[in-house]
Amino acid sequence: MNNFDLVCQKCGWRTVFSGPLANCPICHSEQLEATYDYTAAFGRWRTELHERAATIWRYRELLPIRHTSNIVSFGEGWTPLYRAENLGLMLGHPHIYIKDERQGPTGSFKDRQAAVAVSAMKEAGIREAVVASTGNVAIAYSAYCARAGIKLWVFVTSSVPTEKMREVALYGSEVIKVAGTYDEAKQIAAEFAASKNIFLDKGIRTIAAKESMKTIAFEIAEQLGNLLAGEDPMAPNIRHPWRVPHWFLQAVSGGLGPIGTMKGFEELNKHGWAEGMPKLACFQVAGCAPMATAFHHDLPTAANVMHPATEIATLATGVPGAAYGILRDYIKQYGGTIDAVTDAEAFRALKVAAQMDGISVEPATAVTFAGLFNLLRQGTITPHETIVLNCSGHTFPVEKHIVGDQFTRDMTMPGQGTAEDTPREDGLLTALEELDERVRRIAIIEDNPDAARLIRRILQSQGDFFIDEATDGIQGLRLIRETRPNLVILDLMMPGLDGFSVVDALRADPTLRDIPIIVITAKELSPIEKRRLSGKIKGLLQKGSFMDVDLMSDIQEVLPE
Ligand SMILES: *Cc1c(COP(=O)(O)O)cnc(C)c1O
Ligand SMILES: [Zn+2]
Question: Which residues contact 143 (CB under 8 A, 6 or more apart)?
């Protein structure tokens, strides 16, 4: 059990974490931070780190998940750190290091966020979630939610490249394309979640998101320690001091990456695990640069950019909120800058990185390379300083023909292009209502959580069912009486009242008699048991030997569209 505390940054209220909190119960501030028993954590790292797996979870004492059994993982993290040799030669700078986040399971550093956030959802028992995204969060969350058995509703803007939306749809998420800006998509997502009472992932404002990004700092320090000692950066570092670079560079939209990374470096620094803090350089695209503009005018808050003008959708966040102040404070304290680069500079840098060092990145990442080139040219970064660049995402070729053409649903912002006089609120509620077409309910009664998750996932990815679950026969009967499902999917071997008895109870009750039942069991049925079920159930599937299509075709027979 990994216990950690929540502390309110505003009033100092503190509690042992026992589940997600929207805000501080005393002062209602949303600024809650996780804090850990650092002495115990570093003590365990000292003796155990060398034999731990090369994933973000090697640092689990400083991550906000209480039980390792809730971790949803593809082995994310421990991405390579290497020197950009040819670029370095060309630019006259020998210490440019690439933290290659393209090598995450879905091709961007959002995999760290998805791993921790989705594990936290699993730990909180969440089965359905809503997220807004400029692209990569949607892809990463979709993959992890598929694995965790969580149905995901993704709100993206129409500027997100089709290839990325297709990838999201492939994972079985619901993709809603909002004709508006990212900040409007976020707003719509929040209203949809509230109206449907579905969990909303608040991105940078969630504990899990920020904590996940600390692992970038931990890995950089551990790997750079090896590298600067002339050893293999990919080996666990137990012999050399961990090292903090002089600079950490990243292109930003919401700013989560650098905020979490700086928190990670601060934890190492404050508790004596690594010396120093990096200067921080953040880059925005000139067509959407609220933070860079405010920073260069030395303003404490940034003015929102209502109409982003950039091809680089990943970075088109015009409303930086509190993130700007946090980044600015870090830079005031440790040095650094927030700069803007043009789309044209980014696309030029994209080619340079690919052609000089074989690093093919997505345009958002190219913004970081372009920013680096500018800082070197200006002499802001000097040749003896070590630089680590967050190589945040890959440009991978995308298979165009596997999910057909109809993989998003269009949503028009009420009031747009129509002459109707419906107030925005009414129009929006109707539009949100229409997004969720589900009318049919299925109850799953299953005591094995893995089996329940598999069945749930098959149903979720088909899209159009409300799913309720119970973990034993008694609970199951109560659930069926309350929700009157259109179908019951039933396990046979369960503690207390078993599946056979549930079947008998349902068939004996005239009000429940007609609800169809499909049995899914690991049990080899004896002839007597088969007779006991005969005529009372609509389908029988053997665990471990049926595919999604088998279950769906059984369901189709009982519940035609
Ligand atoms: C999200 C993202 C960014 C911006 O990161 P933030 O820390 O959220 O501002 C940069 N590059 C890529 C590839 C991204 O996916
Ligand atoms: Zn408070």
Answer: 74, 105, 106, 114, 171
